[in-house]
Specification:
mainly alpha, 2 domains
Length: 77
């Protein structure tokens, strides 16, 4: 991804997009999101995003379990 962006800095975006089989809009989106980052920083960002989504799922599951327990407790009284 970073390599493609570096390539797009030197060559026309349309040419680079065709060469790599991606859309021009993808390159512009990547440029907006990852400009100024090196490959290690992008990799770390991806890892953090993955971990964040995993934690959000765990939190949602926990909240659901709490709701179920509350409903069970309310029915027993």
């Amino acid at each position: 991804m970073v390599g493609i962006l570096r390539e797009a800095d030197c060559d026309p975006v349309a040419q680079v997009a065709r060469k790599h089989g991606i859309s021009e809009q993808t390159i512009y989106t990547w440029r907006q999101r990852f400009s100024g980052m090196n490959a290690d920083e992008v990799k770390r960002l991806r890892q953090l995003e993955h971990e964040n989504s995993r934690l959000k799922k765990l939190l949602a599951e926990r909240d659901l379990e709490i709701e179920v327990m509350k409903e069970r407790a309310a029915k027993k009284w």
